[in-house]
Structure formats: structure tokens, C-alpha cells
Amino acid sequence: MKPFFSFIIPSCDVEQYIRECLDSVLSQSFGDWECVVGVETSKDKTEEIVREYAMRDSRIRFSVSPRSGSCSATRNSGTELARGEYIIFLDGDDTIAEGSLERLHRKISQTPGADLYPCVILAHNEMTGEREIRDNYPPDVTTELTGPEATVLLERTKLNPSPMLQFTVFRREFLLEHDLRCIYGLRHQDSEFSPRALFLAKRVVPLHEPYYLYRIRANSVQTKAKGKGYFHRDFAIGLRSLFAFHAKVSKEPGFDRRVSESWARAWCSTLFIKWFSKDFVRAIPRRERFETLKIIFADGFGDFDTLLAAATARRKIAAWWVKFFMRHPNSGWLSELFFTKGYFPLLKLKTGK
Questions:
Q1: C-alpha–C-alpha distance, residues 126 and 130, integer Å
Q2: Adjacent-strand bridge partners of 65
Q3: Average pLDDT, the chain
Q4: Cα diameter, the chain
């Protein structure tokens, strides 16, 4: 008999945290779950600790694989190995709130079979002591949504809602049906994976349930990032994939044009900011930004142009300067001048931000 929940837990160099993570699952009052722990070659005793827990409780299974530098491989293999009806992506340095599984089970059982159940994350910054409640959905949204409806709603309420996979409980068969996988080696895999998963969902049921305790720590992959260029290649790979995804799904019958408009606002903003805002222009050499842009436009501008068809005139003008930068790298300073002295200052004046 398959369990109700499957936890997929990437673990690498988390000796200091993995016991707390697994204990938070073991102590749940609702016990119909399994843990699929993916241990990547670690420099500490992470594997030894996971083996210890697997020997104590048969609901905990684990695999060992070479170090990949991201959670993508473990999340992909874990989805395939899992046997539960619903999947929770839990990182090895985070925990699940006490009693939250029982509450999740009760709420999901009231509206069973949805593809996605967005929840609430409780974030704790260990470096500053700050705590934050993160819920992508307005509190008055309690009804069921389609994926396209949820996509438009999130973009309207937050230009770039947090894409973390941990927000959501996924129906496993939905992930398998659409072959939803994270790009191998991508450290910012959430930003590329989450928009695709949300759009493809037929049923999205926001639960507004605070269940995930997210630790922001000094020595994580995110906080160890050195300089603005650290994740630049990841952003480029993600945008290239998303542009291609839009080009494909926008051709399907019944496609909601509002989705194109939402994605154009969000993804063009990411492109403009991370390649041409003042901070990134100062921090990342022009040649380096040119090389990462080549990743996005490796197959030309076709997919980008498909998205731009739904963009505002202002974004289309800005996109022209992105293309100018690519076509005339020796004159790239002109594109930088357009963005840093014109586009962004005028945008700030308009929005007051």
C-alpha cells in the first residue's frame, strides 16, 4: 500500500542539520509517509547519519550518488523512486512544523486529487534573527484555480513570487505525467521548474497552511554565493528553457493570452535587471554578460520574439536594445547606457520604487 506522503530530501554536507530534519518528520502525529533521502558525496558524516536513521525506521530509504552541486538530481531521482500519492520536497537543512502533516492530510482529503497544493513557508534567517511568513497567494484566495488562472494571479499580486518548490505539495502522478524534472546541475532550479509546473496544473488548491520551516544559514549554496555573477549562468539556462516552454505551449488550442502577458512582464524584467541594471553592469564585466546572454539566445531570438508579442511597447523597446547588445558587442555600452540612464530611472520615476 502506497503512503500518503513522500518526502524527497536532498542531502550534502548537512551533518549539522540532518538529524533535526529527519526528527521533525519522525515526530509527526500523522505517520503515513516515507522519506526518500538522496545523499550526494559529502565531506562530513551526512551519509553515516542517514544510514543510521534508515536502519531505525523502514519508512526511510536512501541512495548515494556523486556530488552534483545542486538539488536537481536528487529531486528528479527521488520523484521516480517515491511511492507516495503526494510529494513534499524537503531540504536536508530544513524541517517540517510539528503536527503539520496531520493538518495537511486533513485539508487535502477535503479536496483530493489536485495537482498542486500551495502552502506557507516559515523562514528564519539565522544570521539576522529575522523571521518571515511567506505565502504566495492572497489570504482571501481559498477556491480552486486552474494553472493558467494561478499563473496570472501570482504575477498580478507579486511580479516575481517566490518560486521555491518547498511551497507546494505535488501530486506525484502529475509530475510523472508531464515529465516535470529539474535541470541537472542548476542551482536556481526552482525559478525554471515552478512556472512550468504551475501552468500545467489542472487543479491548484491553495491551503494557506504553514508547514515548512526554512532555514537561511551562512554556509548554504545561496548565501555562499560570491558576487552577482555567481548564479548568472543558472539564470541564463533557466530563461532559455522558459522562453522555449512558452513558445511551445502558446501554440496549443485555448491558450490564455493573459499568461503570455504575465510571463512577458516577469521574465523580461528578470532579463533586463540581471543583465543591464546598474548593479549588475558594475559587478559583472560586459564580456561575461555577453557570454551568458549567448546561452539564452543560442538558437536565435525566435522564442524571445514569441514572448515579446505579448509585451508592452516599453518592454519591446528595451528588448530591441538587448538584441543590439548581442549583435554589436563592441558597442554594447550603448545598450548599457539605455538601461542605466534611461529605462530604469524612468521606471523608478513611474512606479516610485
A1: 7
A2: 40
A3: 93
A4: 64
For residue 29 the three cell numbers come to: 502525529
DSSP 223-238: TT--STTTTHHHHHHH
**256/220: higher pLDDT:** 256
Q: How far apart are CA 186 and CA 133, in angstroms?
A: 26
Q: Where are the domains of the chain?
A: 5-216, 232-351
CATH architecture of structural domain 5-216? Alpha-Beta Complex (3.90)
DSSP reduced 3-state for 135: coil
Rounded (5°) CA angle 281-284-285: 90
Q: Which residues pair with 131 in a beta bridge?
A: 124
Cα dihedral 5, 190, 267, 299 sign: negative
Confidence of residue 162 (pLDDT cuts 50, 70, 90): confident
Q: In what order do the strands lie in the sheet with 131-134?
A: 95-96, 210-216, 120-125, 131-134
Length of the chain: 353
